[in-house]
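Researcher: Good morning. I'm working through a list of sequences from a screen, and I'd like to move beyond sequence-only analysis. For each chain I'm collecting a predicted structure so we can compare shapes side by side. This is the next one on the list. No need for commentary yet; just the structure.
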Amino acid sequence: MAISHAAVAGGSSVPGKIDGPEWDAAHEGNGLDWYNVRDSPYSATGDGVTDDTSGIASAITAAAASGGVVYIPAGTYITSPITLPPGVTLQGVNGQGYYNATSTVPNSASISRLKLKSGSTNALISPDDGGVNLATHVRIIDLALDCNGLTQPAINLPDSGSSISRFWRMDRVYVVNVGGATGYAVYIGNQNTACMMRDCVMFNGTSGSPAGNHAVGWYGSDGTMDFCFIGYWGGNGLELLGGASDETFRMIGGGVFTCTTGIVAAGSGAVLQGVSIDHHFNDGIYIGYPITLIGCWFHTNSRTTTNTWSNIRIANPVQVNILGCRAGPRAGETSNDPKYHIEAHATSVVNEIGSSVASGVAFGTAYTNYVGTVSAPTFPATTVAVMNTTGAAVQAFITNGSGAITAVTLGSTVTGLTIAANATQSINIPYGQTVAFTYGSGTPTWTWVHG
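Model: Good morning. C-alpha coordinates for this chain:
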Protein backbone atom coordinates (compact mmCIF):
# COMPACT_ATOMS: atom_id res chain seq x y z
CA MET A 1 0.00 0.00 0.00
CA ALA A 2 1.43 3.38 -0.95
CA ILE A 3 1.43 5.99 1.80
CA SER A 4 1.17 9.61 0.67
CA HIS A 5 2.80 12.45 2.57
CA ALA A 6 -0.58 13.98 3.26
CA ALA A 7 -1.62 10.78 4.99
CA VAL A 8 1.35 10.59 7.34
CA ALA A 9 1.86 14.21 8.28
CA GLY A 10 0.61 15.41 11.63
CA GLY A 11 0.11 12.14 13.48
CA SER A 12 -1.84 10.05 11.02
CA SER A 13 -3.44 6.80 12.19
CA VAL A 14 -2.57 5.04 8.92
CA PRO A 15 -1.32 1.49 9.75
CA GLY A 16 2.45 1.31 9.63
CA LYS A 17 2.65 5.11 9.61
CA ILE A 18 6.04 6.78 9.11
CA ASP A 19 5.46 10.04 10.92
CA GLY A 20 6.62 10.81 14.44
CA PRO A 21 10.24 10.10 15.50
CA GLU A 22 10.81 7.79 12.54
CA TRP A 23 9.72 10.34 9.94
CA ASP A 24 12.45 12.20 8.08
CA ALA A 25 10.95 15.64 7.44
CA ALA A 26 13.57 16.29 4.76
CA HIS A 27 11.60 13.95 2.49
CA GLU A 28 8.30 15.73 2.94
CA GLY A 29 7.02 17.02 -0.35
CA ASN A 30 9.32 14.92 -2.53
CA GLY A 31 6.28 13.62 -4.40
CA LEU A 32 7.18 9.93 -4.09
CA ASP A 33 4.92 7.13 -2.87
CA TRP A 34 6.17 5.36 0.26
CA TYR A 35 5.65 1.63 0.88
CA ASN A 36 6.03 0.44 4.46
CA VAL A 37 7.22 -3.19 4.54
CA ARG A 38 5.28 -3.74 7.79
CA ASP A 39 1.96 -2.85 6.16
CA SER A 40 -0.42 -5.32 4.57
CA PRO A 41 -0.06 -6.92 2.09
CA TYR A 42 3.75 -6.98 2.66
CA SER A 43 3.58 -7.76 6.41
CA ALA A 44 7.29 -8.05 7.17
CA THR A 45 7.98 -8.49 10.89
CA GLY A 46 11.53 -7.21 11.54
CA ASP A 47 11.78 -9.52 14.56
CA GLY A 48 15.20 -10.97 13.63
CA VAL A 49 13.75 -14.49 13.40
CA THR A 50 11.09 -14.55 10.69
CA ASP A 51 12.08 -14.79 7.03
CA ASP A 52 10.89 -11.43 5.66
CA THR A 53 12.10 -12.00 2.08
CA SER A 54 8.66 -12.17 0.53
CA GLY A 55 7.31 -9.02 2.19
CA ILE A 56 10.36 -6.93 1.30
CA ALA A 57 10.40 -8.17 -2.30
CA SER A 58 6.69 -7.39 -2.71
CA ALA A 59 7.16 -3.85 -1.41
CA ILE A 60 10.07 -3.34 -3.83
CA THR A 61 7.95 -4.55 -6.73
CA ALA A 62 5.16 -2.13 -5.78
CA ALA A 63 7.60 0.78 -5.46
CA ALA A 64 9.22 -0.01 -8.80
CA ALA A 65 6.03 0.88 -10.64
CA SER A 66 6.29 4.52 -9.55
CA GLY A 67 9.93 4.87 -8.57
CA GLY A 68 8.85 5.01 -4.94
CA VAL A 69 10.37 4.59 -1.50
CA VAL A 70 10.43 1.27 0.34
CA TYR A 71 10.33 2.24 4.01
CA ILE A 72 11.89 -0.18 6.48
CA PRO A 73 11.06 0.68 10.11
CA ALA A 74 13.42 -0.15 12.97
CA GLY A 75 14.05 -3.86 13.39
CA THR A 76 16.11 -6.73 12.03
CA TYR A 77 14.77 -8.20 8.79
CA ILE A 78 16.02 -11.63 7.73
CA THR A 79 16.09 -11.70 3.94
CA SER A 80 17.45 -13.62 0.98
CA PRO A 81 19.44 -11.56 -1.56
CA ILE A 82 17.62 -8.42 -2.72
CA THR A 83 17.70 -7.05 -6.27
CA LEU A 84 16.72 -3.41 -6.82
CA PRO A 85 15.06 -2.14 -10.03
CA PRO A 86 15.53 1.40 -11.39
CA GLY A 87 14.50 4.41 -9.35
CA VAL A 88 13.74 2.59 -6.09
CA THR A 89 14.86 3.95 -2.72
CA LEU A 90 15.38 1.78 0.35
CA GLN A 91 14.85 4.04 3.37
CA GLY A 92 15.45 3.05 6.97
CA VAL A 93 15.12 4.97 10.22
CA ASN A 94 16.98 8.26 9.99
CA GLY A 95 20.05 8.85 12.15
CA GLN A 96 19.94 5.76 14.34
CA GLY A 97 22.85 3.69 12.97
CA TYR A 98 25.56 4.20 15.58
CA TYR A 99 28.52 1.87 16.05
CA ASN A 100 31.33 1.38 18.49
CA ALA A 101 34.82 -0.08 18.14
CA THR A 102 34.21 -3.14 20.31
CA SER A 103 31.27 -4.65 18.45
CA THR A 104 30.74 -6.15 15.01
CA VAL A 105 27.10 -5.07 15.03
CA PRO A 106 25.33 -1.73 15.53
CA ASN A 107 25.11 -0.77 19.19
CA SER A 108 21.59 0.63 18.89
CA ALA A 109 18.40 -1.40 18.77
CA SER A 110 16.53 1.48 17.11
CA ILE A 111 17.92 0.94 13.62
CA SER A 112 16.74 -0.62 10.39
CA ARG A 113 18.82 -3.72 9.68
CA LEU A 114 18.72 -6.10 6.72
CA LYS A 115 20.35 -9.39 7.66
CA LEU A 116 21.34 -11.86 4.94
CA LYS A 117 19.60 -15.20 5.34
CA SER A 118 21.82 -18.17 6.23
CA GLY A 119 22.78 -20.21 3.18
CA SER A 120 22.51 -17.30 0.73
CA THR A 121 24.92 -17.46 -2.20
CA ASN A 122 24.62 -13.92 -3.61
CA ALA A 123 25.11 -10.38 -2.37
CA LEU A 124 22.66 -8.89 0.10
CA ILE A 125 21.85 -6.07 -2.38
CA SER A 126 22.51 -5.96 -6.13
CA PRO A 127 20.85 -4.38 -9.21
CA ASP A 128 17.92 -6.08 -10.90
CA ASP A 129 19.25 -5.73 -14.43
CA GLY A 130 21.33 -8.79 -15.30
CA GLY A 131 24.55 -6.79 -15.10
CA VAL A 132 23.79 -4.47 -18.03
CA ASN A 133 23.35 -1.22 -16.07
CA LEU A 134 19.62 -0.82 -16.50
CA ALA A 135 18.87 -0.48 -12.76
CA THR A 136 19.91 3.15 -12.42
CA HIS A 137 19.27 5.91 -9.88
CA VAL A 138 18.85 3.65 -6.86
CA ARG A 139 19.26 5.06 -3.35
CA ILE A 140 19.96 3.21 -0.09
CA ILE A 141 19.53 5.39 2.99
CA ASP A 142 19.84 4.78 6.76
CA LEU A 143 20.22 1.02 6.60
CA ALA A 144 22.50 -1.43 8.38
CA LEU A 145 23.53 -4.26 6.05
CA ASP A 146 24.45 -7.35 8.06
CA CYS A 147 25.93 -10.19 5.99
CA ASN A 148 25.50 -12.68 8.85
CA GLY A 149 29.11 -13.90 8.60
CA LEU A 150 28.59 -15.19 5.05
CA THR A 151 31.22 -14.74 2.33
CA GLN A 152 28.94 -12.51 0.29
CA PRO A 153 29.06 -8.77 -0.40
CA ALA A 154 26.68 -6.35 1.22
CA ILE A 155 26.41 -4.41 -2.07
CA ASN A 156 27.54 -5.71 -5.45
CA LEU A 157 27.35 -3.64 -8.64
CA PRO A 158 28.91 -6.05 -11.15
CA ASP A 159 31.16 -5.14 -14.06
CA SER A 160 29.32 -4.34 -17.25
CA GLY A 161 30.19 -3.72 -20.86
CA SER A 162 27.47 -1.09 -21.07
CA SER A 163 28.39 2.58 -21.19
CA ILE A 164 25.22 3.55 -19.32
CA SER A 165 25.87 4.80 -15.80
CA ARG A 166 24.12 3.45 -12.72
CA PHE A 167 24.15 6.58 -10.51
CA TRP A 168 23.64 4.60 -7.30
CA ARG A 169 23.79 6.63 -4.09
CA MET A 170 24.34 5.22 -0.61
CA ASP A 171 23.79 7.54 2.38
CA ARG A 172 24.41 6.52 5.99
CA VAL A 173 24.78 2.84 5.10
CA TYR A 174 26.43 0.61 7.71
CA VAL A 175 28.10 -2.64 6.64
CA VAL A 176 29.00 -5.39 9.12
CA ASN A 177 29.60 -9.13 9.51
CA VAL A 178 31.04 -9.93 6.09
CA GLY A 179 32.82 -13.26 6.43
CA GLY A 180 35.44 -15.15 4.47
CA ALA A 181 38.74 -14.23 2.86
CA THR A 182 37.66 -13.46 -0.72
CA GLY A 183 36.05 -10.54 -2.48
CA TYR A 184 34.75 -7.21 -1.23
CA ALA A 185 32.03 -6.12 1.16
CA VAL A 186 31.07 -3.36 -1.29
CA TYR A 187 31.99 -3.63 -4.98
CA ILE A 188 31.42 -0.85 -7.52
CA GLY A 189 32.24 -2.57 -10.81
CA ASN A 190 33.48 -1.36 -14.17
CA GLN A 191 31.11 1.03 -16.04
CA ASN A 192 29.29 1.94 -12.82
CA THR A 193 29.80 5.65 -13.36
CA ALA A 194 28.83 8.41 -10.92
CA CYS A 195 28.12 6.25 -7.88
CA MET A 196 28.40 7.88 -4.46
CA MET A 197 28.79 6.83 -0.84
CA ARG A 198 28.26 9.46 1.85
CA ASP A 199 28.48 9.21 5.65
CA CYS A 200 28.80 5.43 5.42
CA VAL A 201 30.48 3.16 7.98
CA MET A 202 32.02 -0.25 7.24
CA PHE A 203 33.25 -1.93 10.42
CA ASN A 204 33.86 -5.66 10.25
CA GLY A 205 35.81 -6.72 13.32
CA THR A 206 36.55 -5.34 16.73
CA SER A 207 39.35 -3.01 17.74
CA GLY A 208 42.62 -4.81 16.98
CA SER A 209 40.83 -7.86 15.56
CA PRO A 210 39.99 -7.34 11.88
CA ALA A 211 37.69 -9.80 10.12
CA GLY A 212 36.64 -10.74 6.59
CA ASN A 213 38.61 -9.66 3.54
CA HIS A 214 38.60 -6.36 1.59
CA ALA A 215 36.09 -3.67 2.49
CA VAL A 216 35.53 -1.68 -0.74
CA GLY A 217 36.58 -2.34 -4.33
CA TRP A 218 35.89 0.66 -6.59
CA TYR A 219 36.30 0.23 -10.35
CA GLY A 220 33.61 2.53 -11.75
CA SER A 221 34.65 5.99 -12.92
CA ASP A 222 33.63 9.38 -11.48
CA GLY A 223 33.00 7.83 -8.08
CA THR A 224 32.69 9.80 -4.84
CA MET A 225 33.17 8.73 -1.24
CA ASP A 226 32.53 11.55 1.25
CA PHE A 227 32.98 11.35 5.03
CA CYS A 228 33.01 7.56 5.13
CA PHE A 229 34.84 5.38 7.64
CA ILE A 230 36.31 1.93 6.92
CA GLY A 231 37.79 -0.13 9.74
CA TYR A 232 38.82 -3.54 11.06
CA TRP A 233 39.10 -5.54 7.83
CA GLY A 234 41.34 -8.59 7.40
CA GLY A 235 42.22 -7.47 3.85
CA ASN A 236 42.56 -3.96 2.43
CA GLY A 237 40.28 -1.10 3.36
CA LEU A 238 39.78 0.52 -0.05
CA GLU A 239 41.02 -0.75 -3.41
CA LEU A 240 40.82 1.66 -6.35
CA LEU A 241 40.77 -0.52 -9.43
CA GLY A 242 40.93 0.03 -13.16
CA GLY A 243 44.64 0.12 -13.99
CA ALA A 244 45.94 2.81 -16.33
CA SER A 245 42.49 3.97 -17.47
CA ASP A 246 41.28 7.19 -15.88
CA GLU A 247 38.81 6.18 -13.19
CA THR A 248 38.51 9.64 -11.55
CA PHE A 249 37.68 8.69 -7.99
CA ARG A 250 37.41 11.27 -5.20
CA MET A 251 37.42 10.70 -1.43
CA ILE A 252 36.92 13.63 0.94
CA GLY A 253 37.13 13.35 4.71
CA GLY A 254 36.56 10.24 6.77
CA GLY A 255 39.20 7.61 7.37
CA VAL A 256 40.50 4.11 6.78
CA PHE A 257 42.00 2.26 9.72
CA THR A 258 43.14 -1.13 11.08
CA CYS A 259 43.26 -3.09 7.83
CA THR A 260 46.11 -4.99 6.17
CA THR A 261 46.83 -2.09 3.81
CA GLY A 262 44.65 0.97 4.16
CA ILE A 263 44.25 2.05 0.53
CA VAL A 264 45.53 0.37 -2.64
CA ALA A 265 45.63 2.80 -5.57
CA ALA A 266 45.49 0.36 -8.47
CA GLY A 267 43.66 2.79 -10.78
CA SER A 268 44.42 6.24 -12.15
CA GLY A 269 42.84 9.60 -11.48
CA ALA A 270 42.19 9.39 -7.72
CA VAL A 271 42.17 12.36 -5.36
CA LEU A 272 42.13 11.89 -1.58
CA GLN A 273 41.55 15.00 0.51
CA GLY A 274 41.51 15.25 4.28
CA VAL A 275 41.48 11.49 4.81
CA SER A 276 42.85 9.92 7.99
CA ILE A 277 44.90 6.78 7.25
CA ASP A 278 45.54 5.10 10.52
CA HIS A 279 46.93 2.04 12.25
CA HIS A 280 47.25 -0.46 9.40
CA PHE A 281 49.31 -3.64 9.60
CA ASN A 282 51.14 -2.94 6.32
CA ASP A 283 51.36 0.27 4.26
CA GLY A 284 48.99 3.17 4.79
CA ILE A 285 48.67 3.71 1.00
CA TYR A 286 50.15 1.43 -1.66
CA ILE A 287 50.34 3.35 -4.95
CA GLY A 288 50.58 1.75 -8.36
CA TYR A 289 49.05 4.52 -10.51
CA PRO A 290 48.94 8.34 -10.41
CA ILE A 291 47.18 9.83 -7.39
CA THR A 292 46.91 13.16 -5.58
CA LEU A 293 46.89 13.36 -1.77
CA ILE A 294 45.82 16.65 -0.16
CA GLY A 295 45.89 17.29 3.57
CA CYS A 296 45.81 13.63 4.58
CA TRP A 297 46.85 12.52 8.06
CA PHE A 298 48.88 9.34 8.67
CA HIS A 299 49.22 7.51 11.98
CA THR A 300 51.31 4.46 12.84
CA ASN A 301 51.50 2.46 9.63
CA SER A 302 52.52 -0.34 10.16
CA ARG A 303 51.50 -1.63 13.57
CA THR A 304 54.28 -4.21 13.78
CA THR A 305 57.30 -3.47 15.98
CA THR A 306 59.72 -4.94 13.40
CA ASN A 307 58.49 -2.46 10.85
CA THR A 308 59.17 -2.83 7.12
CA TRP A 309 56.13 -0.86 5.92
CA SER A 310 55.61 2.82 5.13
CA ASN A 311 52.86 5.42 5.30
CA ILE A 312 53.03 5.92 1.52
CA ARG A 313 54.62 3.30 -0.74
CA ILE A 314 54.95 4.27 -4.41
CA ALA A 315 55.51 0.96 -6.15
CA ASN A 316 55.55 1.99 -9.84
CA PRO A 317 57.26 4.73 -11.89
CA VAL A 318 54.28 7.09 -11.75
CA GLN A 319 53.63 10.70 -10.81
CA VAL A 320 52.25 11.31 -7.32
CA ASN A 321 51.22 14.69 -5.91
CA ILE A 322 51.41 15.03 -2.12
CA LEU A 323 50.25 18.40 -0.77
CA GLY A 324 50.22 19.42 2.87
CA CYS A 325 49.99 15.94 4.39
CA ARG A 326 50.98 15.16 7.98
CA ALA A 327 52.45 12.10 9.64
CA GLY A 328 53.09 11.09 13.20
CA PRO A 329 52.73 8.24 15.66
CA ARG A 330 49.68 7.72 17.80
CA ALA A 331 50.09 8.39 21.49
CA GLY A 332 51.89 5.53 23.21
CA GLU A 333 52.78 3.76 19.95
CA THR A 334 56.12 5.27 19.01
CA SER A 335 57.68 1.79 18.81
CA ASN A 336 55.47 1.11 15.80
CA ASP A 337 56.60 4.03 13.66
CA PRO A 338 56.48 3.31 9.93
CA LYS A 339 59.69 2.51 8.09
CA TYR A 340 59.34 5.73 6.08
CA HIS A 341 56.72 8.37 5.59
CA ILE A 342 57.20 8.06 1.82
CA GLU A 343 58.95 5.18 0.08
CA ALA A 344 59.23 5.73 -3.68
CA HIS A 345 60.05 3.70 -6.76
CA ALA A 346 63.42 4.66 -8.20
CA THR A 347 61.94 6.42 -11.23
CA SER A 348 58.64 7.73 -9.86
CA VAL A 349 58.04 11.48 -9.87
CA VAL A 350 56.90 12.86 -6.52
CA ASN A 351 55.63 16.43 -6.26
CA GLU A 352 55.69 16.97 -2.50
CA ILE A 353 54.85 20.32 -0.91
CA GLY A 354 54.39 21.22 2.72
CA SER A 355 54.44 17.93 4.57
CA SER A 356 54.78 17.91 8.34
CA VAL A 357 56.41 14.81 9.79
CA ALA A 358 56.67 14.21 13.52
CA SER A 359 59.86 13.23 15.30
CA GLY A 360 60.58 9.53 15.02
CA VAL A 361 59.27 9.08 11.46
CA ALA A 362 61.93 8.91 8.74
CA PHE A 363 60.76 11.00 5.81
CA GLY A 364 62.02 8.69 3.10
CA THR A 365 65.64 7.60 2.87
CA ALA A 366 64.56 5.11 0.21
CA TYR A 367 64.20 7.97 -2.26
CA THR A 368 66.32 7.64 -5.41
CA ASN A 369 63.98 9.50 -7.75
CA TYR A 370 65.98 12.68 -8.28
CA VAL A 371 67.49 13.63 -11.65
CA GLY A 372 71.25 13.30 -11.98
CA THR A 373 73.61 12.67 -9.10
CA VAL A 374 73.23 14.50 -5.83
CA SER A 375 75.53 14.07 -2.85
CA ALA A 376 73.58 15.21 0.18
CA PRO A 377 75.97 17.07 2.48
CA THR A 378 76.97 15.88 5.88
CA PHE A 379 76.47 18.21 8.82
CA PRO A 380 79.63 18.25 10.90
CA ALA A 381 79.87 22.06 11.07
CA THR A 382 77.58 24.84 12.24
CA THR A 383 76.99 26.05 8.68
CA VAL A 384 76.79 23.94 5.52
CA ALA A 385 75.80 24.86 1.95
CA VAL A 386 75.17 22.85 -1.21
CA MET A 387 74.09 23.66 -4.79
CA ASN A 388 71.29 21.90 -6.62
CA THR A 389 72.94 20.49 -9.76
CA THR A 390 70.25 17.95 -10.65
CA GLY A 391 69.00 19.73 -13.76
CA ALA A 392 65.57 20.32 -12.20
CA ALA A 393 63.98 21.75 -9.10
CA VAL A 394 64.12 19.50 -6.08
CA GLN A 395 62.27 19.32 -2.80
CA ALA A 396 64.61 18.96 0.16
CA PHE A 397 63.33 17.29 3.31
CA ILE A 398 65.40 18.19 6.33
CA THR A 399 65.15 16.13 9.50
CA ASN A 400 66.84 18.11 12.22
CA GLY A 401 69.01 16.81 15.01
CA SER A 402 68.97 17.78 18.67
CA GLY A 403 69.70 21.46 17.99
CA ALA A 404 67.44 23.84 16.08
CA ILE A 405 68.31 25.02 12.58
CA THR A 406 68.23 28.75 13.15
CA ALA A 407 68.49 29.95 9.54
CA VAL A 408 67.92 28.64 6.02
CA THR A 409 69.37 30.72 3.18
CA LEU A 410 68.42 30.15 -0.46
CA GLY A 411 70.97 31.80 -2.72
CA SER A 412 71.55 35.17 -1.10
CA THR A 413 68.08 35.31 0.48
CA VAL A 414 67.36 34.42 4.08
CA THR A 415 64.07 32.51 3.87
CA GLY A 416 62.97 33.07 7.45
CA LEU A 417 62.48 29.31 7.84
CA THR A 418 63.69 27.76 11.08
CA ILE A 419 63.46 24.10 12.00
CA ALA A 420 62.93 22.98 15.57
CA ALA A 421 65.02 20.22 17.10
CA ASN A 422 63.97 16.72 16.03
CA ALA A 423 61.50 18.05 13.45
CA THR A 424 61.16 17.66 9.67
CA GLN A 425 60.47 20.44 7.17
CA SER A 426 60.60 20.75 3.40
CA ILE A 427 61.94 23.47 1.13
CA ASN A 428 61.93 23.81 -2.65
CA ILE A 429 65.37 24.39 -4.19
CA PRO A 430 65.38 25.60 -7.81
CA TYR A 431 67.97 24.20 -10.21
CA GLY A 432 71.32 25.97 -9.85
CA GLN A 433 70.42 27.48 -6.48
CA THR A 434 72.51 27.06 -3.33
CA VAL A 435 70.87 26.33 0.00
CA ALA A 436 72.61 26.84 3.32
CA PHE A 437 71.70 25.82 6.86
CA THR A 438 72.90 27.33 10.11
CA TYR A 439 72.49 25.36 13.31
CA GLY A 440 74.03 24.88 16.69
CA SER A 441 74.33 21.19 17.48
CA GLY A 442 73.05 17.74 16.66
CA THR A 443 73.26 15.85 13.36
CA PRO A 444 70.61 16.88 10.84
CA THR A 445 69.94 14.70 7.80
CA TRP A 446 68.14 15.39 4.55
CA THR A 447 66.82 13.90 1.36
CA TRP A 448 66.51 15.41 -2.14
CA VAL A 449 63.36 14.68 -4.12
CA HIS A 450 62.81 15.62 -7.76
CA GLY A 451 59.50 17.45 -7.92
